[in-house]
Amino acid sequence: MIRAGRRHLVRTLADIATQQGIAVQTLINSGRLKAEGFPAPLGAGRIRLYDGEQVDAYLAGRPVPALPTADDDDDLLDRQEAAALRGMDPQAWDRRKKDPAVREHTVLVGGVEHWPRHIVRDHTPTPRRSTGTGGGGRPAGVGDQVPRDQLPARVAQLLDEDPTVTAAGVTARLGVHRNTAQAALTTLRAERMADVMEQRGASAAQAAAELGYPAGLTRRAGIRAAAVLRGRQARPYLAEVARALHARGWTTTDTPPAVQHPEDDECVAVLVLDAPAAPAPALVWSERHGWRTATSRRHPLGRGAAWPPPGDGIRHLATGTTPAPADLVTALDSTH
Fold first, then answer.
1. Residues 106, 78: contact at Cβ < 8 Å?
2. Which of the four pLDDT bands, split at 50, 70 and 90, describes residue 273?
3. Which of 11, 86, 161, 174 makes an SS bond possible with 52, Cβ 3.0 to 4.6 Å?
4. 257 near 297, Cβ under 8 Å?
5. Residue 137 falls inside a structural domain
6. Average pLDDT, the chain
7. For the region Disordered, what residue ranges are annotated (predicted)?
8. What SS3 class is residue 57?
9. For residue 251, what are the domain limits?
């Protein structure tokens, strides 16, 4: 279980291995994960997740702090925990989680699906629709009816007309898949909430209320809005790096990279090194990890945008998450 407000602290095995400068398999083989005092995983699933505050304390030789024990509506439960809360087996939850009222609240953390406690606890299964031809939404087997490049503007219009519009409402109006509708709504709400938060110093909840967004529909958008703000704050730094790389002759332009959010609470950016003398195809920046090289210009982030350990063409560069551009250039020079 990820306790409320601690999602940003979650670490994967890859994160812990990277923190120590070793490969994941080396970390596993070392036995450290089973050593006395090492923090317990946050769940019992196949993919192990850990609390970063606890891991940092253990690695630094400090007492490992206890996690909060009081249940909170915003605790994030994994598959086994959700099933236990509902008094069903995990296979039954696998069916339950497909209900749109649950699916739109799914939160992916470290590659593991989670759901807010209150969603799991309070969910009532949606009645099955008739199999006749009068059902709403997008017909089965039919592709999205709105071209992808037109979708943001069309969804923005619906959001302007009705701030409380749901993914189901977008699906019914535009004929797109519910997941597509939910992603577009979350992105748009987050951008607008970030504008209010930036301009007025408001919290995510205050921004949502000012914009007329129901609290039950904006949890993910609030998390993403905070990431959008952090991304905006990182732009000047990323622009400095882009200029330094261009001055070194590794890029053909000094255009700063766009900040991306592969997960709602994450900021990353990609700088393609497209000059002939470049020491790597691309660089990837993560607000959590700093800089690394990438082996592909076309797919520099890799599957799931996971942070890979060093090796196989991947090199972690400089130290810290925002090293000086000159230090980054020096680190890259050493790869020649």
1. no
2. very high
3. 11
4. no
5. no
6. 87
7. 119-146
8. helix
9. 233-333
Buried b (16+ CB within 10 A) or exposed e, 275-297: eeebbbbbbbbbbebbbbbbeee
Reply yes or no on whether the pLDDT at 32 is more than 80: yes
**In 10 A of CB 262, how many CB atoms?**
13
Q: What is the mean pLDDT of residues 249-269?
A: 91
Query: Does residue 89 fall inside a structural domain?
Result: no
Q: What is the pLDDT of residues 61-83, one digit of tens each?
A: 999 999 999 999 999 999 999 99
Q: How far apart, in whole angstroms, are the C-alpha atoms of residue 244 and residue 251?
A: 10
In degrees and rounded to multiples of 5, residue 120 shows phi and psi of -65, -45
Place of tokens 């192990």: 48
**Domain-embedded: residue 278:** yes
Residue-level pLDDT at 143: 45
- Shared domain for 239 and 213, answered yes or no, is no
Q: Is residue 289 part of a domain?
A: yes
Q: Give the CATH number of the domain where residue 17 resides.
A: 1.10.1660
Together in a domain, 200 and 244:
no
Per-residue model confidence as pLDDT tens digits over 142-179 = 444 567 778 888 899 888 888 999 999 899 888 888 88
Residue 48 pLDDT > 80:
yes
Average pLDDT over residues 118-135: 64
Which residue in 258, 249, 186 sits closest to 222, CA to CA?
A: 186
Instruction: Say whether both 116 and 45 belong to one domain.
Output: yes
Sign (positive or negative) of CA dihedral 74, 78, 81, 84: positive
Report, as an integer, the average pLDDT of 270-279: 93
Radius of gyration of the chain from Cα atoms?
22
Element (H, E) at 11: strand 10-12
Q: How many helices (H) and strands (E) does the chain have?
A: 13, 10
Structural domain count, the chain: 3
Of 217, 242, 263, which marks where a domain is finished?
A: 217
Alpha carbon of residue 260 to chain centroid: 10
Q: Residue 126 has what pLDDT?
A: 60
Pair 197, 241 in one domain = no
Give, as one character, the DSSP assignment of residue 300: S
